[in-house]
Each structure stands twice: as structure tokens, then as C-alpha cells.
Amino acid sequence: MNFQLLVRSALVALTLPLSMQGAVAASAPSSTAPAVRAPEVAAPAAPTAPPKPAAPAALKPSDADYDPTQPAVTPAPALPPTPPPRKVIGKPTNTRSFVWEVKSPTNTVYLFGTIHVGKRAFYPLPEPVEAALDSAARLVVEADIEKPLAAAQMAPLIGYPPPDSLDKHIPKALFERMQAQLTRLKIPVEAVKPMKPFVVGGLLSLSEFSRLGYDMNLGVDAYLITRAREAGKPVMELESTEAQMKLMSGMSADLQEAFLENAIATLESGNTADQVTGMVNAWQVGDTALMQDVVQSVNKGMRLTCALDEVLLHGRHEAMLKKIEGYLAGKESHFVAVGSLHLVGPRGLLQSLKARGYEINQK
User: Fold this and answer.
1) Where are the domains of the chain?
2) Residue 18 CB burial class (10 angstroms; 0-12, 13-18, ≥19)
3) Angstrom distance (rounded) from CA 10 to CA 207
4) For 183-192, what is the mean pLDDT?
């Protein structure tokens, strides 16, 4: 599950835990496809062509200029105004890949930061990433998306038992704001009433990414798993779908409400496309500083971000580090793929491994 970013807003979906995506898919309206598929958002209706204006009347010439042998003169149509340039958060300062080689005295582990939605243009991945994956004996992901939870296991984690419903768990004003975004994204409000707040937050974010041209089925994790299995490499998990879902479902009511409200606030801001572009830029050029800048920009004005980060991001690191150090103590090289935000910042996996004495080099 890649939910690490769900915490913040629409950017959440980019690094959202893979199991979170499964929850969204499992609880999406019936019009969506099953399994690990992004909720299909109805395409916005094609803009209606404006009515064709009547041909402008000929300019009435003055008597002195009148020439009956010449056609009437009509004014040239006005050119549409040039739209202002889009403002993209952050500017890349790096030109490497989002992959690091971590060395112990006996072994090498590659740490790769992923985003969990994608486009066909992302592939193949940059040569240093593909080469690292080829050289590794095993692939390790947060959770194997090809092993989803059964519906009976998933249902109590992502939804309320009837007749309970979401509108009984969040303030009326927040429910109305949510309803406005659902309407904009062509998602029936009745379809989300059985869902818990964190699932609806994920659904809104992923639906907006879908509207912007990103596809959960083209996420980097899915690509890596397919490549590994085609090459006969074992696929291992740092966590599991069940563990991730239990973590999110177990968040307090305040945190779940804040999670949903932050996703709504980001969509209301109208800046989602710019924020996504900034984050994707950072990921594509391996710029950790830019990625942190984008996240900090998104976090401004959001609720309980520190508490959410502690549960959804930093609180998961110690268990991840224990497994990664186990790989480093062995003999077989591992390619470890985690959501990009797990790698960056003073509490990220890279700084933690460096502090423990491992040699780290960006590729």
C-alpha cells in the first residue's frame, strides 16, 4: 500500500500505500472495475461549442470613402487572450535518478523511491534504475499488489456495517464539502456513504489524478513486480496489505477526519495539477530537496500533518529499517522499492541508514 502521501492531499495518491489503492478499488462505486484498479471517473463532458455568431454587418462607410465596386470590409476576429503560464511548484536542481546504492561490508541494497500512479511515458524507467533492478537477485516492495485481501477481510477495515454510514462520523459542513467534490468528479455520494473517511480521502485523490491523466494501473510498483516475475526473481514484502490496511483503519476518528479534510482542501485549492507536476519532476530527476519543498508547500494550512506523518510515514520506518539491515547482512543483492517520501528528509530511510554507518550513493 502506498498511502504515505495520502496524508497530505491529492499528492497523497502518488505515494499512497499499495493496500490503500486496493481499498479504494474495493469500495469504489459499482461502475468501477474490481481488484487493483483506479476508480473510473466519468470523463468530463466535452465542452459545448459556443453558438456560431452571426456574420458581422458590414461597416458603414463614410460617403467620401464609399466604393460600390469593392466588397464590404468586416473587422478581423479578435485573437483569444494568451493564457498565463502554469505555475509549477519547485524547480529541479538535480539530474539523477531516485535510486540509491546502499553498501555494507558484505552486500548491496538498492533503495528506489516510487510513486504509485503513472503514465505510459514513464517506462522504461531511467537506465540506472533498470540496471539496478536487473543486477538484484530479489525485489522487495511495500506490499505485493498481486496478493490483495479477500473481500471478507477488507470489508470491516474500509467500511461501516449497515446501517452505520460516513455522514454520522464527520461534521455536516465537511460532508457537504466532500459532496461538492464528489459531484465534480461524477461519483455518487450514496456510493461512498458506507466508507470510512480515510478511504474516501483516497478515492477523491486518486479520482483527481485519474482526471489529470495518471493511472493507478500504470504505477511504478506494478511495473517493477511484473519485471521481476518475468525475470524469475522472488518478490518480497516490507509490510503486507493487511498490515497497512489495519494501520489506516485503526487511526483515531480525529486523524481520519483530518485525512479526508486535507484531501478535500487540496482539491478545493485548484492547485493539484501544479503540485503533481512538481512532485513528478522531483521524482524524475532524483531531486530530494525539491520533493521536500513540494510537500512543505502542500502541507501549509493542512490539519494534523505532524500526527498523520507520525502514523503513516515515520512510524513505519523502524520496522522497514530492520528488514533492510537484514538484507544488507546477507549475500544476495535486493532492490527495495518504497514510496518516495519514505526516503527523504532527516527522518527518512536514507538518513537513518547513513547514520548507522552504511555507504550510500545516488545513481
Assistant:
1) 3-36+88-362
2) buried
3) 9
4) 96
Q: How far is CA 58 from CA 2, 55, 76, 289, in A?
A: 63, 9, 12, 61
**DSSP string of 61-83, one letter each residue:** --TTT--TTSPPP-PPPPPPPPP
CA atoms within 13 A on the CB side of 55: 6
Element holding 109 (H helix, E strand): strand 108-114
Across the range 39-57, mean pLDDT stands at: 38
Write a three-state SS string for 208-260.
HHHHCCCEHHHCHHHHHHHHHHHCCCCEEECCCHHHHHHHHHCCCHHHHHHHH
Q: Are 221 and 124 in contact (CB under 8 A)?
A: no
Please choose, from the candidates 206, 200, 244, 218, the residue with its C-alpha nearest in 3D space to the C-alpha of residue 18. Answer: 244
Rounded to whole angstroms, how far apart are CA atoms 288 and 123? 21
Instruction: Please say whether the beta carbons of 139 and 133 come within 8 A.
Output: yes
pLDDT at position 24 = 53
Beta bridge partners of 353: none
> If you average pLDDT over residues 232-241, what whole number do you get?
96
Alpha helices, H only, the chain:
12-15, 18-27, 127-135, 151-158, 172-184, 189-192, 197-211, 220-230, 241-249, 253-269, 272-285, 288-299, 305-312, 317-328, 349-355
269 has pLDDT over 50? yes
Measured CA to CA, the distance from residue 207 to residue 201 in angstroms comes to: 10
Provide the phi-psi class of 15: left if phi over 0, else alpha when psi is between -120 and 50, else beta: alpha
